[in-house]
Amino acid sequence: MLHLTSRCLVLLILLLSVMSYSLPVFSQTITQTVRGRIVDDDTRMPLPGANIVVVGHEKLGTSSDSDGYFRLEHVPVGRISLAMSFIGYESRIMQNILVTSGKETVLEVTLKESLLIMDAVEVRAGADKSEIANEMALTSARGFSVEETKRYAGSFNDPARMVSAYAGVDADVSGNNSIIVRGNSPKGIQWRLEGIDIPNPNHFADEGSTGGPINALNSQMLANSEFYTGAFAPEFGNALSGVFDMKLRKGNNEKREYSFSIGVLGTDVSAEGPFVKGGKASYLVNYRYSTLSILNSLGLVDFDGIPKYQDLSYKVFLPTKSLGTFSFFGLGGKSKIMEEEFAEENEDLLLQRGYYNANMGVTGITQYWPLSDKTYIQNSLTYSTNGSGYDGFKPDDTNVLRQVDDFSMDKRSIKAASSIVHKFNARHTVQGGFIFTQHSFDFYDDSYETESDSYVRSQDSDGKADQYQAYLSWKFRPLNDLSFVSGLHVQKVSLNDEISVEPRVSARWQFHPRQALTAGFGIHGKMESLPNYFAIIDVGNEGPTMPNTNLKISKARHFVAGYENKLSDNLFLKVEGYYQQLYDLPVENDPSSSYSLVNQVEGFTDRVLVNEGTGRNIGMEVTLERYFANDYYFLVSTSIFDSNYKALDGVERDTRFNSNFIGNVLVGKEFHLNSKKDKNKVIGINVKISSLGARRYTPINVDQSILENETVYFEDQAFSQKGDNVFVANLAVSYRIDNRKISQELKLDVQNVTNNDAKLNYYYNDNTGEVESSNQLPLLPVVSYTLHF
């Protein structure tokens, strides 16, 4: 770690030297073009003649054309707010839009039709930044921008790490990207891209898991996206705890633009632009390769366990005259690493060596097809693949490495989805759709047994499984400040005859111009991961079988109530309470067992399961956020909760993820340096401080672990012990320079500044014969330099 830290400091000095040099330019105020499109929030139809004004710069204004497009030139770089209005629609202010010299700012803006008859347009001051684009989601939803992803300390430009600042979301401080929402297993999360669910988009991830150390999707590709933590809208299925709904931005269709970034976590390049000058079609592509792997190839670093990974993402936007618009998109990543363990008393004595590899990829096409000014169809078709493998080696009696583990899980999925939206009027909008998914898979696990001097295949399965989903949603606005969303989601898995019927209803009442009440209820179900359905288990006299293929969908009833108060134009308070009643959870078919899949993170189960388990999550969340204005912001979020489960032993126990409390404080400030007119220099300082409750773990039966040479737990004491409470302080310092044609940013993002060393969990190490701990990720400085031109 000292070698890595010192190299980060050297890289920081070199990058500062690069940034200090800039090309000569004419002395003038630096400006940029801001443009985009304004559409109806429900139908996505263009709104011609809408007014757009830069707040504080009344002379910088324009109107949208017949297709809803607008263009503002000579906008000063920095942070701006845009006020938008249109007759018959609620006005809107988009705040904290970062304008830089290296790239044009291209926006997609939606306006909501008003129920009031207005004689004149009036722009509301300080519109609510917390509002999200999905009008069917009224509770437990949060929108976020790519700018926030880059700004928050400790996020490493990774949206998965950024959301750990939100109320109810517990961070995995071991360094993984697992997202734990309201005490649920991270397996309850659904990842979505371009409106359709995708495999886990993290590097070094296993099938069935939802986390990984590094997200394969670069933040350079993201548009404004959304994160949901409960009582989901009817369109969302196959998710139990949360939905991460990411959207790719469209490439610039008027000029070609490029970005280059180098940092500890990766070196990447991106390009975007029009296919034909004057056309509407565009492309956007990004490629990243692990920087440490590059440095290792050049002989500049020398340590074991170099993580090697690469990823590619793209989006092609293609409008047509009669069939609407098509988007071709893709995301793919490959990763591998070698890990070695040496004896403590002899650092030259190799105890084991392992090679881990993983991959994921998704490619697809979506179509937005307007049938009229009130109706449109959205179609999509995707193909995805993901998998992981491990080859483990240990020295034999003659000190020759022998392979002892050979493990592989590969899955492929074809997904087709279609939905239709019809807006009857400002009061009534309906949405309906279906999703079909076909999974095919190959799983195996070989291990070497010393006693028999042979390899034993404990897992060996391949096959297919289909999933069918359909939904119907109705948004009803009886009053301008009162909205209801109700509907139904239905899903079925081909492995059994169960049909999961999941009603949903939510409401939002803006009873005061600055205050609102929200409430929601929904039943939500999730298909278990395929390794659990098709796990081969030795069942006594019956021998190896697959007893879990008929498992039903795990379910939860979500109850949510919230209160929102816009204390001032830039200060927002949100309080939300929830109760989740989990049922039909897979538990071991043994009346004396405490085993439940509600505590599983990844991998195969080794138990015969039945859907007779239950659980309960209850909690309260408070968020106080000061939106970025006047060069500073802050976010304070806190959560108090309790998460329990029952297996067939009938004992109510804490879940693995019942840490009881989460607290976060984020604060950031930008300082504008004295600059000439041909340069704009800004230093940003961002801090995140988190206090997290301890994870639960099951005590280890050391004597039995030694006998069986693997970890054996006291299962009658499941999750009765707690690790250490966790303190994390993250610091990010950035330095941005806008020249006339280029924008540069140097950033130092330090995770765990105080090098806190909390013990999170314990396991038995069969190499040393001792119980060891897994600890909090130590101090990790990440330096990056980004150039936009």
Can you give keywords for this protein?
five-stranded mixed beta sheet; single chain; 6 helices; mainly beta; Maltoporin, Chain A
Question: What's the quick description here?
Answer:
This protein has 789 residues and is mainly beta.
Helical region count? 6
Q: How much strand?
A: over 45%
User: Quick one: how many beta strands?
Assistant: 45
Shape: globular
Largest sheet: 22 strands, antiparallel, barrel
Helix content: under 10%
Estimated radius of gyration: 27 Å
CATH superfamily of the domain at 245-466 and 474-788: TonB-dependent receptor, beta-barrel domain
Write up this protein.
The chain is mostly beta strands and about 800 residues long. The protein has a domain at about 245-465 and about 475-789: Maltoporin, Chain A, CATH 2.40.170. It has a 22-stranded antiparallel beta barrel. β24 (about 400-425) and β25 form a beta hairpin. The chain starts with a helix and ends with a strand.
